[in-house]
């Protein structure tokens, strides 16, 4: 009798299993295809904030390449920059011009600007929009002092910048005359003016407004027509990875300044009280600061003033000047911080400064600390000079050794510290001569040459002194 499953039931079962497997595989492929289509509708939003440097260039160019590979309908670059490196800017503009998907540059949020290199990047986008309250332009080249570059060199720099921005504006169909004026005349425009002159495509206060403005627009990208379709796309905020974020953070002018100060103070503390930790951390901080300085228009004179301020603070710890060295250090610190960065030397360089509130806080904090140091030092010295309180630190008859030649005033090492001293008869006494203390004139020891041998165990550097010594600046 014939079975309902045919002549060979085993074959029928095997055929059924194969059909089920094919169906399952087909369903899985459909699910994967659906997932891929969903992923393709994601628009990366790349954050281009701060100085344009090599880190930002790598982040943006890689972000555009990944969006292309994923088949994204577009990529958005949210821009807020004072400018930056010429090479980094060229890398970003090249990635924009070669992109096969729409690159939408959005100058945002309100209050943002696309200055210097930011102007080139904005014009290089397939589409460009600005939030209300933003500005763009000011891309003319100046030297490191903020003055026009004169002579043949200045003309070459100006012409090169003009032709480069002209080529970008022509490639994107933007107002060439306006673009050239941003370089030749340092022209800068608010968002509404930039739209009216045809520098950008419109004003958009949010990503949703961008979606509505760009959907349906037809663009020519890499020789082919592309219609922008973001109707059902989702925006994905794609930030830098932690390592990129750290390196880019260093290009912040305030962060670089703070790191330099922290590193310098750390090294000073290491010299005063060796412990390895503060020295290592201080060295790392200074190295990171100089990484940031490399992306900024550093003014060497400003950096030297800050260094001089730190040197004066160190001297205050070893030579009691009753606060004069501290005052000089604070003046150098404020002037150096204010002049730490100069105007850019290229048409893309950033116009950056250390924030005035940061300078004020740094000066007040340092001043308060140094005032405490001076007060402790002076108070300790006068306590030593009051026999009724603690007795004489170096009694008459004590032995010492000349550290700074007495001509007639200098310093001697006695009683474990270095003291201002003068010879009793006004005659000069050479360094290394053993002396006997015969009296004291206020805080100055009166000595005469001669006496028994004395152990010259005075520290060789001011950082090795066990206490704040009573050496007078008088």
Give me the number of helical elements.
15
Overall geometry comes to elongated
The unreliable regions are 1-7, 29-39, 142-147, 385-391, 458-474
* Average pLDDT for all residues: 80
Query: How would a textbook summarize the main sheet?
Result: 6 strands, parallel
The radius of gyration computed from the alpha-carbon positions, rounded to a whole number of angstroms, is 35 Å
Q: Oligomeric status of the shown chains?
A: single chain
Q: How far apart are the first and last residues' alpha carbons, in Å?
A: 128 Å
Strand element count: 16
Amount of helix: 40-55%
Strand line-up of the largest beta sheet: 8-5-3-2-1-11
Secondary-structure content class: alpha/beta
Content of β-strand: 15-25%
What topology emerges from the helices and strands here?
Elements: H1 9-40, E1 42-49, H2 54-69, E2 75-80, H3 86-98, E3 103-107, E4 113-115, H4 117-124, E5 127-130, E6 135-137, H5 151-172, H6 176-184, E7 188-190, H7 191-196, E8 202-203, H8 207-214, E9 218-221, E10 224-227, E11 234-238, H9 242-249, H10 253-272, H11 277-293, H12 300-318, H13 324-338, H14 356-384, H15 387-390, E12 399-404, E13 409-414, E14 417-423, E15 434-441, E16 444-449
Parallel strand pairs: 1-2, 1-11, 2-3, 3-5, 4-6, 5-8, 14-16
Antiparallel strand pairs: 6-7, 9-10, 12-13, 12-15, 13-14, 15-16
